Amino acid sequence: MSVTTERGPDARPVARNPGHGRCVVCGSDNQRGLNLAFRQTEDGWVEAALNGDDSLQGYARLMHGGIISLLLDAAMTNCLFAHGYVGVTATMEVKFRHPVAVDVPVRVRARLVRSASSAHQLRAELLQNDEVRATANALFVHRPALVSQDDGSCLEHPRE
User: What is the pLDDT of residues 28-62, one digit of tens each?
Assistant: First the structure.
């Protein structure tokens, strides 16, 4: 599977959370993951692009809805990172608007809608051929304890 992330000179990389290295979507330490590199654009979105393949399908040549949801959730998580927050998904509503082909590149993006001290509302979109194919609205709960320690454990769930 090939991954692309370039969107031009206005995009800059999102700083990765050290406790997120094994993430199935964006973790650089996960050999079996998608290894997407999210970038923040001048217009306030955080985005990444993916050239998929049939390993992401549900029905023949169509991307599985769970994969679509995974990509939308990851875009919102990386949007939080771009704003200096660490959080987990509390609720997420996904709307599947059009089928997504596995063999046509997609772009997933997210933006922060509203933020309070312990909760953040975000919106994400998955686009294919510049058409919005799926959207998500989510509430994330601030969880700074998930920041990784030097030994790879997190403060919330230390290694035994």
Answer: 766 776 677 889 999 989 999 999 889 999 999 99
pTM: 0.81
Answer whether residue 154 is part of any domain. Answer: no
**Through-space distance between the first and last CA atoms of the chain, rounded to whole angstroms:** 36
Q: Per the domain annotation, does 151 fall within a domain?
A: no
Residue 134 counted as domain residue: yes
Q: Give Cβ neighbours of residue 10 (< 8 Å, ≥ 6 apart).
A: 41, 42, 43
Determine the structural domain holding residue 71 and report its residue range: 2-146
What domain count does the chain have? 1
Which residue is associated with the tokens 């996904």?
A: 94
Domain of residue 96, CATH code: 3.10.129.10
